[in-house]
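Problem 12. The chain below contains 303 residues. Write out its predicted structure in token notation.
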Amino acid sequence: MTPRWAIVVLSWNGRDDTIACLASTRRLTRDDVVVICVDNGSDDGSADAVRSAFPEVELIETGRNLGFAGGNNAGIARARELGASWIVLLNNDATIAPDAIDGFEQVAADRPGAGVLAGKVLFADPPDRIWFAGQRFNAALGYSGRPRGYGKPDGRRYDEVVAVDRAVGALMAVSSEAIDHVGVMDDRLFAYVEDVDWCLRMRAGGYGVVFAPGARAWHRVSASGGGEHVSTHPLYYGARNTIVVCERHAPLGRVGTLTRRAVVAATFGLRAVFVSNRRDALRAASSGVRDAIAGRLGKRPSG
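Solution.
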């Protein structure tokens, strides 16, 4: 049977998280779903663990770290080969609700113009607090702010189907039809903000981005990157890719461009202050800005 839905789980040195994530997919109340796990060059035994514990899961081993975009693109390509109409991206450090696909499917039927469906993502701890319920993104200003509902208790106000500016790669569904017209994620961005870029491209291509509140997952935030307040990767890639994506989608004149770059640099510099290794964090943010201006994309340079 050709699957209507495919779930792509990207794993990179997160064996225990990946096992818990895949275990949650076994509780889905559907028989038209295929699960694809992409191992992005892990060296912690993740691939062998998945192969042993989940023989029903299709495992792709990339052999090296292709980043969030490149690794997921490999899974997306396989899902499309299998004939899936919709492809769900699910972070390996998240667990999905048993009825999540039903939640996506209902909104897909009600909003036929949607190419991207944004799931509702809650914190793993506490599990009733929202991490993401849709978000705005202003490319002209380089500003998005916190997601809608961030840190607040889940409730009726977050159960409404609404158009949003962007989805988040932790839980989002994208139609194969939209991918046919718009393409996959830009793997040159490597990690962070590539989901924003994808959503902006979808909207520019005439496809809606819609919040699907019935599709839920619980996210152990930034586990794969070492934690929100530990790893410097989010600061480097966030600063670099925010500038790149904004200049790609909302070009400004010289003064506007310089002003926006300064705003992005200041924003990520302020975030760096709250990271435990502050000096390294500030260096990461500033090097991200420099690489954006120089047009250096791909994986973050080591050292």
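Discussion. The beta strands are 5-11, 33-39, 58-61, 86-91, 94-96, 114-123, 130-132, 171-175, 208-219. Students who got a different answer should revisit the alignment rule from Section 12.3.
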